[in-house]
Amino acid sequence: MEERMYKIYARSDERIQLKIFPGHFATPQSHITHFLDMTTMKSRCSEAKRIAKALSVNYETSIPIDTIICMDGLEVVGAYLAEELTQAGVLSMNAHQTIYVTSPEYNSVGQMIFRENVQMMINGKNILILSGSITTGETLIRAVESILYYGGKIRGVAAIFSAVNKVAEMPVHSIFTLKDIPDYGTYKIQDCPLCKNRQKIDAIVNSYGYAKI
Fold first, then answer.
1. What contacts 69, CB < 8 A, 6 or more positions away?
2. Cα(190)–Cα(198) distance, rounded to whole angstroms?
3. pLDDT for 110
4. What residues contact 88, with CB distance under 8 A and at least 6 apart?
5. Residue numbers in the chain where pLDDT is lower than 70
6. Backbone angles phi, psi at 91, to 5 degrees
7. What are phi and psi for residue 158, nearest 5 degrees?
């Protein structure tokens, strides 16, 4: 699997590199044709800062952002994104005039929850959702529903890669899209053509990485 890996480069900054593994992969929601490895993007400060800078240009200073909800382990990127937005003059309605950066917790049935001590970052706040990879958008829809339940006001969705342009009628701003990976495919498990062709699943994947089968 590793020998098939290749890289693509962001159009806005060629120093932003996304590692791609073509094959047959199973996610909790679907089967996909490519695994996107964002490990170093999440953990290297230099890469995280470049990603944050590339994403920050999509948000006007007239749109207030109080809290960034980091999905998929993107807290490092989220912290740099908060810094970029603050420097650009994006308004924050928080009493301390700063942007909160936090991540969700999931209960035993996979629902996103926020504990009482974190809810003050959500309730009545202007929220930017930061995601690593958006394929079907189902996970993000559940995130939107949860944030609305806790009283948040969603002002935007940012992602490193997104296969969809909108989620819950909101535009998704991403660095990489299907134009960058034109043969990328995502399928419901029962409709997967790779399974129908008896192509072996290479790995089970999620936001943490992959586990070979």
1. 102, 103, 104, 122, 127, 128, 129, 130, 143, 147
2. 13
3. 76
4. 56, 59, 61
5. 91, 93-96
6. -75, 145
7. -120, 145
pLDDT in the model for residue 94: 64
> Whole-angstrom Cα distance, residue 26 to residue 7?
21
DSSP H or E run through 26: strand 17-26
d(CA 162, CA 178): 7
The DSSP line for 44-62 is -HHHHHHHHHHHHTTS-TT
3-class SS of residue 135: coil
pTM equals: 0.92
For the chain, give every domain's residue range. 2-212
Helix axes 45-56, 75-88, angle to 10 degrees: 50
Contacts of 157 (CB under 8 A, 6+ apart): 128, 129, 131, 134, 140, 167, 170, 171, 172, 173
One-letter amino acid for residue 205 of the chain = V
Tokens of 33: 């044709």
Length of the chain: 213
Tens of pLDDT, residue by residue over 166-196, are 987 889 999 999 999 999 999 999 999 999 9
User: Which pLDDT belongs to residue 96?
Assistant: 62
Residue 179 CB: number of other CB atoms within 10 A?
7
Q: Any idea of the CA torsion for 81, 139, 63, 17, to the nearest 10 degrees?
A: 30
Instruction: Please provide the CATH number assigned to the domain covering 2-212.
Output: 3.40.50.2020
